[in-house]
Amino acid sequence: MNIKKIAIILCANLLFAFGTAYFLVPSGMISGGVTGLALGLDRGFGIPKDVTVWVVQVALFAAGLLMVGKDFAATTLIGSFAYPALFSLTNRLAERTGPLTDDPFLCLLFAGLAFGVGIGVILRQGASTGGTDIVAVILNKKLGLPISGTLYVVDALVLVTQVFFVDTADQALYGVLFVLLYSLILDMVLTSGKSRIQLQIISREYEAINRMILQTFDRGSTLYRTEGGFTRTASYAVQTIVDKRELFRLREQVLVIDSDAFIVVSQVAEVNGRGFTLGKIAGPHD
User: Fold this and answer.
1) Cross-strand bridge partners of residue 242
2) Runs of H (alpha helix) within the chain
3) Do 41 and 59 contact (CB within 8 A), yes or no?
4) How confident is the model at residue 274 (pLDDT cuts 50, 70, 90)?
5) CA distance linking residue 269 with residue 193, whole number of Å
6) What are phi and psi of 251, to 5 degrees?
7) Angle between helical axes of 132-143 and 49-67 (0-180°, round to 10)
8) Distance of CA 137 to the CA centre of its chain
9) Rounded CA gap, 35 and 91, in Å?
10) How far is the C-alpha of 275 from the C-alpha of 17, rounded, in Å?
11) 223 forms bridges with which residues in the sheet?
12) In what order do the strands lie in the sheet with 262-268?
């Protein structure tokens, strides 16, 4: 892992910790994961939040190292230690400066934004926040339980236990909305900039369409042998992947070449390879 990735992961953990200390904690909302467990123990039994985060994160990291292995531990190393340290720092600062807002709705919005963006950036770097992720991976390896389902169950249990320690029902309801909000933002961060449009074009003018895609749009293409189900006519289908902003212009160009072209458009979540995550290779038309 290079220095740039480490710096990005640390900044994302700082955003995560800042959102917890300045928006989640003052609002009294419930939350999932290790953070939620720490908030629940603090409200119910007076155990300092940062102490719980440190103890649980380090204990789970050690368990992951012993039960899953070094390769997995390496991906959770930074998150397991950076988040507790940065949360301790931002929590102490928040206690001195006071919350930035007392409005529960603003706390909900900004905490959700900080959690969603922070965790999303960490995951996009191939790292992990540690915590309950480790529990899910251990149970998957030892008992064969699905990771995603285990994470939902663990977070749900943490959320339910906190309900008994909130001052008002509003805090619990805001907490549920907070979890939903940051989950939506997290999904957006994970898929942003990666989704593309895939087109499959069936036409008698496949050669001209293929040439247009290569030369005009500078995109790669693949030709598939096809046979009409009714006419039994043999031909080729052209498949290509483009950015969203190129879709309508490409479709217009296809219909100029063949107004009867059959075009299937679908969205793909992510594309890896030449022309997208790797540099292009000069072709015969360059």
Assistant:
1) 197
2) 3-19, 25-27, 33-45, 49-67, 70-97, 104-124, 132-143, 147-162, 169-191, 206-216, 247-257
3) no
4) low
5) 10
6) -60, -40
7) 30
8) 17
9) 12
10) 37
11) 238
12) 222-227, 234-242, 196-202, 262-268
Q: Which amino acid, 158?
A: V
Reading the block at residue 149, the tokens are: 């389902």
CB 197 within 8 A of CB 184: no
- The full DSSP string for 28-56 is T----HHHHHHHHHHHHH---HHHHHHHH
Instruction: Let me know the angle formed at the C-alpha of 2 by 69 and 195, rounded to the nearest 5 degrees.
Output: 85
Report the relative pairing of strands 196-202 and 222-227 from DSSP bridges.
unpaired
Q: Residue 87 is encoded by which pair of tokens? A: 């949360």
Instruction: List the structure tokens of 139.
Output: 């149970």
pLDDT digits (tens, 9 = 90+) for 201-227: 999 999 999 999 998 888 889 999 998
The distance between the two most distant Cα atoms of the chain, rounded to a whole number of Å, is 78
Q: For residues 81 and 54, what is the distance between their CA atoms, to the nearest angstrom?
A: 8
What's the predicted TM-score (pTM) here?
0.72
With bands split at pLDDT 50, 70 and 90, how would you rate the model's confidence at 239? very high
Half-sphere exposure at residue 114, Cβ-oriented, CA atoms within 13 angstroms: 20
Q: Could you tell me if 36 and 111 are in contact, meaning their C-beta atoms sit under 8 angstroms apart?
A: no
**Joined tokens for residue 45:** 């039994």
